[in-house]
Structure formats: C-alpha cells, structure tokens
Amino acid sequence: MAASAYSEHPELCVKDNYNQSEFKRRIKVNCDTLKNDHCVAFTAVSHSNKAIIISFRGSEDLEGIMEIIDVISIPPTAEFYGKAKVNHYFYTAFNDLWTSGIKDDFLSLKNKNPNYELWITGHSLGGAMASLAAATVATTNLFPLDKIKLITFGEPRIGDKTYAELHDSLISYAYRIIHHHDIFPHEPPSWIYGYQHHKSEVWYDNDMAVGDSYIECDEDESKKCSESTVNLNPMDHQSYYNVKVIFANDGCAGFNPYKN
Q1: What pLDDT sits at residue 62?
Q2: Cβ of 154: how many Cβ atoms within 10 Å?
Q3: Which residues sit opposite 30 in a β-bridge?
Q4: How many angstroms separate the CA atoms of 48 and 13, rounded?
Q5: Beta-carbon contacts of residue 236 (< 8 Å; ≥ 6 apart)
Q6: GO BP, one example (predicted)?
Q7: Residue pair 234/180 in contact by the 8 Å Cβ criterion
Q8: Can you give the pTM of this predicted structure?
C-alpha cells in the first residue's frame, strides 16, 4: 500500500492485494514550500482483513528527496499537541491532505466499518505524514488506540523529544522500517534542533532480499540499529524489500504471495 501511493491508480493495487476491498479516493494537493511538488494520499478498506487503510505518497524522485532534506533542516516549530513540536513542512503537507478530504473519507469508512482496524502507511515524506496521521487520530480520539497500526518506510525525523514520547505513549503498534544505509531516516540530524525519532525501528542491514535478517530496536534513537552506521546512501531510499518503491505504477499483481 505504501508503494501503491506512488501510482496514479492505486485502486489497482488495492484490488490486486485484497479479494474483498473498497477503494475510497485518491487526493492530490500542492505541497507547501516546494511549489512544483505535490502531496498525495488515498483511503481504502480491506474487508478480508477488516482494516481501513490510509496511505501517503513520498517524494517521486531523488531530486525531490534532496530538496526536502534541504527544506526540513530547520528547528521543529509547528505546535502539534500539548507542548510537542514538529517540522513545519511535514505538518503543513499532512494538514493540507487531511483537510482536503482524507479526514472525511477516513471518518466515512470508520462509520461504515466500526469494528475494523486502522492501517496507516507511507514511504519517505509519506512516512512522515503517516506518523502525523496516526498521532492526530490518536490525540483527537477518532479511533481506538489499540486498533491503530502504523508501518512506515524510510521515515525521517518529524519532531522533538516531546513529540516522540507522545507518539510512543499513544501508538503501541508503530514500526519504522529502514533499508541499510538509507539517508532519509537520518534527517534532520538528531544532534541539531532537538529532533528525535519515535519507536520502534526495524533495520535491515542488507539488501532486504527474501530471508534477510533484521534488527528491531524498541527504544527511541537506539544506537544498535541504523544510527550505528555512518555510510549513508540516497539510493537505499529508492528500494525496499529488494524492489523499487515505484514498482506499483501498473498495479501490484504478482507482488503479494499472501493475498487474502
């Protein structure tokens, strides 16, 4: 679902992955600051998994990723909840999508399927927005906390220590998947401006091929996972699980051996 957000037609992947599904809507808005970039998200539901899905798209290419790294290298100044502060660019991008229909579509699916789980995902910038979506749903009491599941890929740091601690206290099922030397999860750096990752991290110190091992770190900013490496590589941000993150342009047929 994270990869399908890059497609102009994510409904193809929803259909390919789930025998019983419903695609709600894809929403595209102009992103703040980067005038030529767009932010995208979609909502769907898997009846076979009894799950509502919200997926956020990341940056479309390496140039866009590097532009975002430059834009986000500022202190977290946007007020989130309580005293927590997050990066202004990420928060604005998320809010633009949330208020342009993603929130309404999510609530509509929730009302139609009151006993389902909520799955939220995204890669890169999409991972940042997915984290903010999970925290927003949790802090505004829109969904039971024990039914929110967040999985992101190549997610950057989003906010300060207070945000990380708030996120940890609310979302127990949260995993940030990181591929090898992916540079984006190391931005903005933890040693300036007070940014801090929320937990938990799952680090693949390899190519993420079938059967490759991983390390799970359940504390914030663990030195046992990707923070232990200094050789960062933007190209590792472009592929996860040994496939390009943009593989889903024509659907996801054949990519999910566990289709149900």
Answers
A1: 59
A2: 29
A3: 38
A4: 15
A5: 179, 180, 181, 182, 183
A6: lipid metabolic process
A7: no
A8: 0.93
Q: What is the dihedral of CA 68, 31, 35, 61, to 10 degrees?
A: 50
Nearest CA to 154 out of 28, 41, 231, 245 is that of 245
Span 111-167, pLDDT tens digits: 999 999 999 999 999 999 999 999 999 999 999 999 999 999 999 999 999 999 999
Which two tokens mark 84? 């927590």
Q: Which of 52-56, 59-63, 188-192, 212-216 has the lowest mean pLDDT?
A: 59-63
For the segment 105-113, the average pLDDT, to the nearest whole number, is 98
Strand pairing partners for 239? 244
| DSSP H helical ranges for 57-213 | 62-71, 88-97, 103-112, 125-139, 161-170
Identify whether the C-beta of residue 216 lies closer than 8 Å to the C-beta of residue 200. Answer: yes
Q: Which residue has the tokens 């933890």?
A: 190
Number of residues written out for the chain: 260
Closest CA to 54 of 148, 161, 159: 148
Contact (Cβ atoms closer than 8 angstroms) between residue 169 and residue 148:
no
CB contact at 8 A, 161 and 170: no
